[in-house]
């Protein structure tokens, strides 16, 4: 693996190297599973083009074009004068490499049940969410090809990685070895079984959250009823979090007729005893959802496509599912008898990585919930806040005032003149109660606003305590 890594780096088989060589058009076409532009971009047969074809595109290359570092790696097979990769080997943004099963494309054979998928958008999404603070013990639950470990390396003193699929751990070990990551404690088992009596400062998981009628593919489906796997994962997490420990997950949940999804997901978390924040990032109708995951398994164009599509839709219909939500879940073991759960929808662009400020998101929610008498609090306006006013030309008063965050989660909220005025003057020096009294006199509203009206603005990070 060390010799192979040296060759990959010397050849320029890195994230930047592959992007530059393929170009925007070929990269965009690959996202649609179209290989022709990428094959044209790598037609010269130079060392980098050869590696891209072998490892990324999964097509045979001439054996004469490869050095022993590749042919003797154990990750390729020779057929006459040609060599074909037996795995997908991709450079990753950390500077390391990931080994997984070969990418499946339309026309390929059906996936094996223990298929190990490579890293993609969901993996990057979770890595962007996880807190950046250093920790002692970290757990990557359902490690797959081992991608989250590459992000945890250097941030955690001790890393445990688990997976139900032994093949996943086999390939993950190759990923870690190829990336120079040492001392990962890898264990086989379901959910928290391999770490039954252990505590962690950080738990991360990109779990098998796909919701459907059967659990055919281990990497994405648990076989649990509906969204029960994600529910059970959240409920089982607190007993494995150290005091102050955090957990970050990706999840899917059902939008069921007659039920508010906020109550559904919030209900999973209210009995955990942890502070929690849920952000729904996307919502799909059942047809969109089924098409996405049938395409993921390259089932489009197969004989069974229509049958699987119809059975999946029938399964949703029987359960009165109107939509499926996808999002982030963060939990913190705050050691309080009064935990708070915030569930919201955030479908706009936010500042990345979220991990740079996710701690402050939980801090704000908890502070707003637990702050006692806000009249005596000394809030200050968050940095980068804009005051946007919309009104008729020449009018004395605006029709609408909006506070807009330019950093972090970039939330927007329509406010009244009192809140807008408060945002302009509070700097952490003066108490909120007297400030509101003065502002009310100046704007001439008459009634003095209650300090508790500012609590939602504190929870959403417009004001800091």
Write a short abstract of this structure.
The protein has helices at residues 2-11, 15-31, 36-41, 47-57, 68-71, 121-129, 147-152, 166-178, 228-236, 261-270, 286-296, 305-318, 358-370, 417-425, 432-443, 455-459; strands at residues 61-62, 76-79, 82-85, 88-91, 97-100, 135-141, 156-163, 184-188, 200-205, 241-256, 275-284, 321-332, 341-345, 380-381, 385-390, 400-405, 412-415, 463-464. It has an eight-stranded mixed beta sheet with strand order 8-7-6-9-10-12-11-13, sandwiched between helices. With 465 residues, the chain is of the alpha/beta class.
Overview of the molecule:
By secondary structure, the protein is of the alpha/beta class. The protein is built from 16 helices and 18 strands. It has helices at 2-11, 15-31, 36-41, 47-57, 68-71, 121-129, 147-152, 166-178, 228-236, 261-270, 286-296, 305-318, 358-370, 417-425, 432-443, 455-459; strands at residues 61-62, 76-79, 82-85, 88-91, 97-100, 135-141, 156-163, 184-188, 200-205, 241-256, 275-284, 321-332, 341-345, 380-381, 385-390, 400-405, 412-415, 463-464. An eight-stranded mixed beta sheet has the order 8-7-6-9-10-12-11-13, with helices on both faces. Helix 14 crosses helix 15 (432-443). The radius of gyration is 26 Å and the shape is elongated. The mean pLDDT is 94.
Question: SSE layout and pairings?
Answer:
Elements lengths: L1 H10 L3 H17 L4 H6 L5 H11 L3 E2 L5 H4 L4 E4 L2 E4 L2 E4 L5 E4 L20 H9 L5 E7 L5 H6 L3 E8 L2 H13 L5 E5 L11 E6 L22 H9 L4 E16 L4 H10 L4 E10 L1 H11 L8 H14 L2 E12 L8 E5 L12 H13 L9 E2 L3 E6 L9 E6 L6 E4 L1 H9 L6 H12 L11 H5 L3 E2 L1
Parallel strand pairs: 6-7, 6-9, 7-8, 9-10, 11-13
Antiparallel strand pairs: 1-3, 2-3, 4-5, 10-12, 11-12, 14-18, 15-16, 16-17
């Amino acid at each position: 693996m060390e010799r192979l890594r040296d060759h990959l780096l010397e050849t320029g088989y890195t994230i930047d190297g592959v992007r530059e060589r393929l170009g925007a058009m070929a990269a965009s076409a690959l996202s649609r599973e179209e290989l022709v532009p990428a094959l044209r971009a790598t037609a010269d047969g130079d060392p980098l083009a050869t590696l891209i074809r072998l490892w990324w595109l999964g097509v045979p290359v001439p054996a004469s074009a490869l050095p022993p570092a590749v042919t003797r790696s154990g990750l390729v097979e020779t057929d006459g004068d040609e060599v074909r990769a037996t795995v997908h080997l991709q450079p990753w943004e950390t500077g390391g490499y990931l080994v997984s099963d070969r990418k499946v494309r339309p026309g390929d054979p059906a996936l094996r049940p223990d298929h190990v998928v490579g890293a993609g958008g969901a993996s990057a999404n979770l890595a962007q969410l996880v807190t950046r603070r250093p920790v002692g013990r970290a757990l990557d639950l359902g490690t797959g090809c081992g991608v989250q470990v590459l992000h945890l390396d250097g941030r955690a003193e001790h890393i445990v990685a688990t997976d139900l699929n032994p093949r996943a751990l086999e390939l993950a070990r190759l990923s870690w070895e190829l990336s120079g990551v040492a001392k990962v404690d890898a264990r086989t088992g379901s959910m928290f079984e391999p770490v039954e009596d252990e505590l962690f400062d950080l738990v991360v998981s990109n779990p098998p959250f796909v919701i459907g009628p059967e659990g055919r593919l281990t990497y994405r489906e648990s076989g649990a009823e509906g969204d029960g796997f994600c529910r059970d994962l959240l409920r089982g997490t607190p007993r494995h979090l150290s005091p102050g420990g955090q957990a970050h997950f990706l999840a899917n949940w059902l939008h069921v007729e007659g039920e508010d999804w906020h109550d559904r997901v919030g209900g999973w978390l209210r009995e955990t005893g942890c502070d929690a924040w849920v952000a729904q990032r996307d919502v799909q109708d059942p047809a969109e959802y089924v098409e996405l995951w049938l395409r993921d398994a390259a089932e489009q164009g197969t004989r069974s496509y229509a049958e699987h599509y119809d059975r999946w839709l029938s399964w949703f219909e029987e359960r009165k599912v109107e939509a499926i939500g996808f999002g982030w879940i963060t939990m913190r073991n705050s050691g309080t008898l009064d935990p708070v759960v915030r569930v919201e929808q955030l479908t706009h662009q936010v500042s990345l990585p979220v991990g740079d400020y996710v701690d402050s998101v939980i801090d704000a929610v908890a502070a707003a919930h637990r702050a006692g008498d806000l009249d005596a609090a000394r809030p200050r306006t968050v940095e980068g806040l804009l005051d946007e006013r919309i009104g008729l030309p020449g009018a004395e008063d605006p029709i609408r005032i909006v506070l807009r965050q330019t950093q972090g989660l970039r939330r927007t909220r329509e406010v009244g003149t009192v809140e807008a005025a408060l945002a302009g003057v509070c700097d952490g020096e003066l108490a909120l109660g007297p400030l509101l009294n003065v502002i009310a006199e100046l704007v001439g509203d008459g009634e003095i606003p209650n300090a508790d009206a500012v609590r939602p603005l504190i929870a959403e990070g417009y004001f800091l305590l």
